[in-house]
Amino acid sequence: MNAAAGRRDLLVGALAIGGGLTVMWLAAQIRGMPGQPFSPGFAPSIIGGLAALVGAVLVLRAALGHAPALESEEADPGPPFRAAALWVGGGILVIAALFETIGFVPLLLVWLAGFLMLTGVRLLPAIAFAVPMVFGMDLAFTKLLGVPLPPGEWMIALGLLG
C-alpha cells in the first residue's frame, strides 16, 4: 500500500469515528416522545454507530498496512466529483437550516436528485430514483419508527396540513 493511500484511509476513518460518535452523543440528547416505541434519536444513533464502525475498519486497515479501501487511477477526480462532494456537504447544512420551514420531502428530493445529476445521472432517471427513495424514507421514519418529520411550514400555510 502506498503511504498516501494509507494516510487517506487513516484520516477518513478518524473523521468517520469522530463524526459517528458526535452524532451518537447528540442523538442521546434528544428527549423521548411519550407513547413512542423509539426515541427520535434512535435512527441517528444507528447511523452514527455505523459511521464509527466503518471508520474503525478504515483506521484498522491503514494501521495494519492493508491495501487502501478506495483506489483511483486518477490523481485528481475532476470537477464533477468535487461538485458532488460540495453538494453533499453544503446540502446537509442547507437541509439543517431549512428543515422545519421547507420540510423533509421537498428538501431531500432536491438534494438527492441534484447529487445524482452531478454524478452523471440524467434528470428523469434521477427523479425516478429520488421520489421512491425519499418517500420510502419518510414512511420508514414516520410510520415504522414513529418519528415525525416536518412537512414544512408552507404546507400548513397553504392549508394542506392541520
Automatic annotation (TrEMBL):
The chain crosses the membrane at residues 12-30, 42-64, 84-111. Keywords: Membrane, Transmembrane, Transmembrane helix. Residues 14-150 form the DUF1468 domain. This is DUF1468 domain-containing protein. It comes from Falsiroseomonas bella.
